[in-house]
Amino acid sequence: MTKTFKTKNLLLVIVTVLLVGLFTPAIGANEPKYGGTFYYALDRDVGSIDPHSAHSVQRINVGIMMFDQLTTFDENGNVIPNLATSWDISADGKSYTFHLRKGVKFHNGREFTAADVKYSFERLSNPKTKALGYALLNSVAGKEEFADGKVDHISGIKIIDDYTVQIDLVDVDVTFIRKLATTYSSIVAYEGVNAEMEMVSPIGTGPFVFVEYVPNQHLKMDRNPNFWQTGKPYLDNVVVHMNVDPSVQLMRYQTDQLHYMGLSSPVAKHTLEADPRYRSHIKFLPGPTVQVLTLNANIEPFSKKEVRQAINWAINRERIASNVIGGLGVPAQTPLPSAMSLRLDLKEWYGYDPAKAKELLAQAGYPDGFSTELVVVANEVQKLASEGVQADLAKVGIDVQVRVVEPATYTAMMNEGKVPFGNMNVGSQMADPDEVFFDFLHSSRTPGLNRAAYKNPELDALIEKARATVDEDARNAIYVQAAELVMEEAPWAPIYFPYTVIAVKPELKGLELMPTRPGLRITGAWFDK
Predict the structure, then answer these.
(1) Helix (H) or strand (E) holding 8
(2) Distance of CA 50 to the CA centre of its chain
C-alpha cells in the first residue's frame, strides 16, 4: 500500500477551491441580465424525468432544474435550508421537525404545504412507483409496513400543520438530513402523477417549468416566473438535446451553438486544448464518482475470490487513466469517490502486477485463464476504458469481449444483478460514504443498484452500524473497515476517478459546479451579452 493517492487527490481539492472563484461574480462585476436560452447537450437520453428515479448525472442535473428538496447542498457539499427553512432534532436523534418555507408555488400555481412532503415521500416509498430511490427512507418509522402494503400511509411522517412536518425514525440515522438534499427526495405535485404512481407531467417548485420531453431527442423547459428565490432564474429557457455525439457537441461549441459543454471525449478535450481560442475555457474538477468493474460472486468464475483479486492486480490503472481515456481521470484504488477516500485517508490496495494475477488465477483453477464478456454502457470514455481493461486482462490469459449496450438496456441488465462482469460508474448525491456502501453494496439493494449482487452479512452490519454512529471519528473508522473489506473481497475492481471536465464560454456567468451529484446548477446562470 502507498500514499500516492492522497498526494494526487489533494491537488484536486485545491483545484476545486480555486474554481469556486472562477464562477462567482467579483465585487463590482456586471449585474445579472435576464434572457437567453441555455442549450445543454447529452450523449444519451436521460431515460426518465422522474426525480424519484434520478440516479445518473444526466437525470440529476435535469431533475434539479424542475424540482426542489427540503434541504440542499452548497458549493462545498454542506447541507443548507431549501424548502425547509429550519429543522429541530430530538435529543435522542430519532425525530426531526421541519419548518417549511411559506408562499412557495408549484408550477401549476398551487401552494406547497406539508401534505406535499408526505405525499412525495410516500410515493417515493411505494413499490408501485418502482423508484430507484426507493430505499432512501428505510430509516423512517412505518416505511417498511407501508411498502409491504400492510398500511396505507407512513406513520412516521406526521403533518403538524400546513408548514410543519415531523418525521420519526426507527433508529438514529446520521445521514438523514443529507438524504433529504438528494434529487431522490424531490417534492412533487400529486397532480402530475397517475393512479399507477407514474409521473405523467413533471410538476415541481424548481426554477424551470416542464414544457416537452421527446425521448431520445429533447427536453424543453421555460423560466418559472413564480420561483420562490426572488429574481431567479435569469435564463428564459432550457433546451436539453439528447443522443448528441461528442464530435457534434464539439462542433456546436466551436460555432457558438453551445456555451457549456461537458468534455466526455478525449478527442474533444485535446481539440479544445490545442486551440488558443478555447484553451482557457476548459475547467477540471474532481468528480463525485469512481469508475469500477462489477464482479458477480454468484456466477463462475467470479465466484472465486482469487479470480476477482487477480483482475484487480491485472489492471494497469495508470495507463488507462493517462493514455487510454486521455487524462480524463486519475487511477483509483479505493471503492469510494476521491474526496471521500481522501477524507477517510484510505490506502491504495492493489498495484499493477500481472505475475501476481496469473498466480491467483492458477490458485483458482484457471492457469490458462478463461473467456468472458464485459458489459458497458454506450459512452465513449467508458468504452475506451473497457477496451483498456480488455488489453490488460489478455496479458494474463483472460479473453474479454466488450459488449456495448444502450443506456436503457444497460440499466435493465445491470439492475437485474445477473451480469457476470460489468463496468459501472458509482457516485454519491450526498457526498457521504453511506450512500455508496448502502446503495451499491448492501445486500438489500439487489436486484437494484447493487449490480455485483454482492451479499456479505459482515459488510451489511458495518454499513448499518455506521449509519447509527453519531461520533464522526468513530463513524469514519467503521467506513475504513468497510472499504478494506470490500477491497479484500473484491466484488469491484476500481479503475479510475473521473474528472468533471467542462468547457464554458466567458459570457456564461453564474454557473454552480458542485462536488456532489448534481454536478451542475443553473439557477443563477446568466449571459453577459
Answers:
(1) helix 4-22
(2) 15
Spans of the chain, pLDDT less than 50 = 1-28
Q: Which amino acid is at 358?
A: K
| CA neighbor of 287 nearest in space, from 239, 347, 337, 223 | 337
Chain center to CA of 443: 20
Element (H, E) at 498: strand 492-504
**Phi first, then psi: what are they for 58, rounded to 5°?**
-65, -45
Q: Could you write out the three-class secondary structure of 421-449?
A: EEEEEEECCCCCHHHHHHHHHCHHHCCCC
Half-sphere exposure of 521 (CA within 13 A, CB side): 23
> How much is the pLDDT for 29?
53
Summarize pLDDT for 218-265 with one digit per residue, the tens: 999 999 999 999 999 999 999 999 999 999 999 999 999 999 999 988
Q: How far is CA 272 from the centre of its chain?
A: 27
Q: Packing angle between helix 457-467 and helix 472-489, nearest 10 degrees? A: 160
Residue 286: strand pairing partners: 499
96 phi and psi, to 5 degrees? -120, 130
Q: What is the pTM of this model?
A: 0.82
Question: Do residues 273 and 282 lie in contact, with contact meaning Cβ atoms separated by under 8 Å?
Answer: yes
pLDDT single digits (tens) 429-440? 888 999 899 999
Identify the CA nearest to 479 among candidates 410, 406, 412, 428: 428
CA distance 363 to 442: 28
Tens of pLDDT along 126-181? Answer: 999 999 889 899 999 999 999 999 999 999 999 999 999 999 999 999 999 999 99
Count CA atoms within 13 Å of residue 107 on its CB side: 25
For residues 222 and 211, give the distance between their C-alpha atoms in angstroms, rounded to a whole number: 7
Q: Is 29 exposed, middle or buried (0-12, 13-18, 19+ CB in 10 A)?
A: exposed
d(CA 91, CA 101): 24
CA dist 401 and 476 (Å) reads 39
Cα dist. 215→211, 258, 350 in Å?
Answer: 13, 21, 42
Would you list the DSSP string of 303-352? Answer: TSHHHHHHHHHH--HHHIIIIITTTSEEE--SSS-HHHHHHHTPPP----
- Residue 512 sits at φ, ψ, to 5 deg, of -110, 120
- Residue 457: asked if its preceding bond is cis (omega within 30°), the reply is no
The amino acid present at 196, given as its one-letter code, is E
| Residue carrying the nine cell digits 422522474 | 50
Residues 61, 65, 67, 70: is their CA dihedral positive or negative?
positive
Beta-strand (E) ranges in 120-267? 157-161, 164-168, 208-214, 218-223, 237-241, 260-262
